[in-house]
Amino acid sequence: MGGINFDEIRAIRKSFSLLKERQKKNRPDYLDEKIGRLKAVRESSVGNDELMRRVVTTIEKNGMKVFPAKSTDDALRAIVQEIGSEKIIVKSKSNVTKEIGLTSELEQRGLQVIETDIGDRILQLLKGTPAHPTGPVAHLSAKTIADGLSRVYGKTVGEGPDAIVEVVRKDIRSYLDTSLVGITGANAISAEEGSIVIAHNEGNIFEVIRRKKHIVVTAIDKIYPTVEDALNMLKIICFYATGSLIPSFVEIISGVSKTADVEKKFVTGVHAPEDITLILLDNGRRDILASGHRNLLLCIDCGNCLLHCPMYNTIGTEFAAGKYLGGKGLAYESLVAGEVNERLEFCLTCGRCRTNCPLSIDIPAVMRTIRSDSIPQEVFYFLKSHLLWLFFNIKLRLP
């Protein structure tokens, strides 16, 4: 706990406050109706084996390859096989690729992996860890980022957001022009159409998916019955993650580049991509389904729980483990690892995460089940967490 950077905590609070203000200003009248529809779809889709079989069938029918991966090793092996002899890989933000440690694994094999999202590229260059699933550098001030990038690039980078974005964009652009392999995640996979649905605001995914080979890495809990169901989810995740009503861009990929302009006969590989591979990761998710904590897999990774978590807003990424952020992330990581992460002791079990979750996931209930064997033990953790929270809040207020 000695590693808390209070400047980062203040930056997190500032970023989260701006996002909450934007949510309050932009909240649409139809949101509750869409959340109700999403809940029903997630309840019927997560862990639905029949839906999974339909996804594999329709994706393959559309001319794309599917690799079900039971473990991290299975996924990494399939990805390396698909990359082949290429040495420069461009990729977009993906929580699932972070889960399997894809970038570090490929770098250890001598490949150059370039994150193309501005925030993730900044983290990559500064060797940092994310603070929010869709806003990874929310804990870093513009000055901190500019100072760090100035050291990396060996030249002065302006402290304004515009100056930072411009220098990082040019850096990313130089790699996009040479890479033949792009890796992305996916927000959803639709069973009816056999489509891969990806949302983004920066426009970088346009470039990543236009490589000769496109590899999509996502998880089995990202499956939806139809594209319409996926788009409904995107509106909700966009609102809670950014305060906007819809992402700037939505890609719906239902096959490789092809044309039927001549005699209405399909010819593939007209432009790019010529080859699309989907990696569907399990990595302990079926075990979670069987453990009685299925609700954790209903999560859509909007990160709204972090905005309202008193402990996360006090100690930041000390209440996390890599990509596993806050109470929900640590609970999930503990179940997958089969070992209780000691940072679960920091959870106040105040319930604000549940109240502010669009799917009303009862994270405190899961937390208590995982970290405590008895009422006295839970009382001890409750008191310990509140004393820690009070102590660090006092430290935050000191000069």
Could you explain the architecture of this structure?
The chain contains 18 helices and 14 strands. The chain is an alpha/beta fold. The model has no long low-confidence stretch (mean pLDDT 93). A hairpin with a 2-residue loop joins strand 13 (320-321) and strand 14 (324-325). It is globular and about 75 Å long. Helix 1 (6-26) crosses helix 11 and helix 15 packs across helix 17. The protein has two domains: 6-12 and 303-397, no CATH class; 30-283, NagB/RpiA/CoA transferase-like (Rossmann fold, 3-Layer(aba) Sandwich). The strands form four sheets. A six-stranded parallel β-sheet has the order 1-12-7-4-2-3, with helices on both faces. A four-stranded mixed β-sheet has the order 8-5-6-9, sandwiched between helices.
